[in-house]
Amino acid sequence: MKVIASSLRKGNVVELDDKLYVVLKSENFHPGKGTPTTSVDMRRISDGVKVSERWKTTDQVEKAHVDEREYDFLYNDGEGYHFMEPETYEQLVASEDVVGDQSVYLQEGMRVFLQVFNGAPIALELPQKMTVEVTETEPVVKGQTASSSYKPAMVDNGLRVMVPPHISTGTRIVINTGDNSYVERAKD
After folding, report:
1. Domain containing 86: what range?
2. 67 vs 44: CA distance, rounded Å
């Protein structure tokens, strides 16, 4: 299926020169003069080699058809990351390459989308938002709550996130898994 280059997102699988690539990062550039372009960092599925491509945003790119289903994360060991299909109880093992820096978000029993091609996991898609607890941050300074400055905070999965000044240690917050940014205070 052909799609325009600007619609590519992290986790998509594209076909180039009869080889499959999984998109790691996709950015659109709109210069003041000249043609808008899309820069894409990809990993070749067959051997794990990383490749960068740049297309005009309107260029047609072949998006490969892969099986995308929900899986539950079970655990991580020396073999890799283990996932289970909730209806058939079929288990898959994803390598470190597939999971990458998203491993900090994985929690036991968490539901994720795995893209599978020929029985092998090739890409992982996390829920867009996730609730975490702030484990360490600077104390709240009275009168600073109205300002728009953010302060660094550590959350329970080990990530460093910039939060508004009114957030204190022990507060549960919602973060965007795409860019590790603060979204809101958790409603629970």
Report:
1. 67-125
2. 17
CA 59/CA 37 separation, integer angstroms: 9
**17: domain CATH number?**
2.30.30.30
Closest by CA position to 26, among listed 16, 44, 13, 45: 13
Dihedral sign from CA coordinates of 161, 180, 43, 108: positive
User: Which tokens go with 75?
Assistant: 């655990």
Are 116 and 146 within one domain? no
Beta-carbon-side half-sphere exposure of residue 110 (alpha carbons within 13 Å)? 22
d(CA 137, CA 32): 40
Q: How many CB atoms lie within 10 A of CB 97?
A: 14
The span from the CA of 5 to the CA of 10, in Å, is 12
Which of 21-30, 94-103, 141-150, 166-175 shows the lowest mean pLDDT across its residues? 141-150
- CA angle, 102 then 107 then 109, to 5°: 125
**Average per-residue pLDDT in the chain?**
86
